[in-house]
UniProtKB/TrEMBL annotation:
InterPro entries recorded: G_patch_dom, PINX1
UniProt superkingdom: Eukaryota
G-patch domain span: 23-69
Entry GO terms, CC: nucleolus
GO molecular function, one term: nucleic acid binding
Species assigned in the record: Euroglyphus maynei
Residue ranges of the TM segments: none
Descriptive protein name: G patch domain-containing protein 4
Length: 117
C-alpha cells in the first residue's frame, strides 16, 4: 500500500481570535468572580498586565532553552590538558620504559636458564 497524499489543512481561525474573544473561559470567569473586570491589571494594586501573554516567535532553528556555548569545549579541553600535565608530574614515562626493559631482561634470563637444563 502506498501512503496517501498529504493534504493542506486550512484552519478556520488561524490567529486564534475566537479563543481570545471568548468571554466564557474558565480562568476569566474565576477572575471575574473575585472582582476582576476586563481592562484592569492583575495583583493587589491592579498594576499587572492587562493583556494576555503572547508567545515570542523564534526566527532560528535552535531548540527550546538553547544557550550559545560555542567555546565550552575549549574550556573543557584546557581542563583536560591541565589534568594530564598534573598526572605526568607524578607518573613519568621513563619509569614505564624502564619496567618494560626489566620484563625483557627477565624473559631473556628465563630463556637462557631453560637451555641450560
Amino acid at each position: 500500500m502506498l501512503a496517501e497524499r498529504k493534504r493542506k489543512v486550512i484552519y478556520s481561525n488561524p490567529r486564534g481570535t475566537l479563543w481570545a474573544n471568548d468571554k466564557q473561559k474558565f480562568g476569566q470567569r474565576m477572575l471575574e468572580s473575585m472582582g476582576w473586570q476586563e481592562g484592569q491589571g492583575l495583583g493587589k494594586d491592579q498594576a499587572g498586565i492587562t493583556e494576555s501573554i503572547r508567545p515570542s516567535f523564534k526566527f532560528d532553528n535552535k531548540g527550546l532553552g538553547y544557550k550559545n556555548k560555542s567555546n565550552d569545549w575549549i574550556e573543557d579541553n584546557n581542563v583536560y590538558e591541565q589534568i594530564l600535565s598534573d598526572l605526568s608530574k607524578y607518573h613519568k614515562p621513563n619509569n614505564l620504559v624502564a619496567k618494560q626493559d626489566e620484563i625483557k631482561d627477565l624473559e631473556k634470563k628465563t630463556k637462557s636458564s631453560n637451555r641450560l637444563q
